[in-house]
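Appendix C reproduces, verbatim, an entry submitted by the partner laboratory led by Prof. M.T., so that reviewers can inspect both the input and the predicted structure.
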Amino acid sequence: MLSRLGRRDLAQKVLRDAIRIQTTSHRAWNSLGQVLQAQGKNEAATECFLTALDLESSSPVIPFTVIPREL
């Protein structure tokens, strides 16, 4: 949303903070790639997109936090 409002620097900071908290979030990596691409930082964007693809291929279909635990 921040990127759409033209606040790409802030969007980049928020996404980098999100990635620092959850390094395996393919959605955050992809979004960061989109922001960087909009800023003309194509090499950095490509790295983010590749990371997102790699993480997405190994992420579970259903998050582990949603699966009920066996008693």
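Residues 59 and 65 are 13 Å apart (CA to CA). Additional entries are available on request from the coordinating office.
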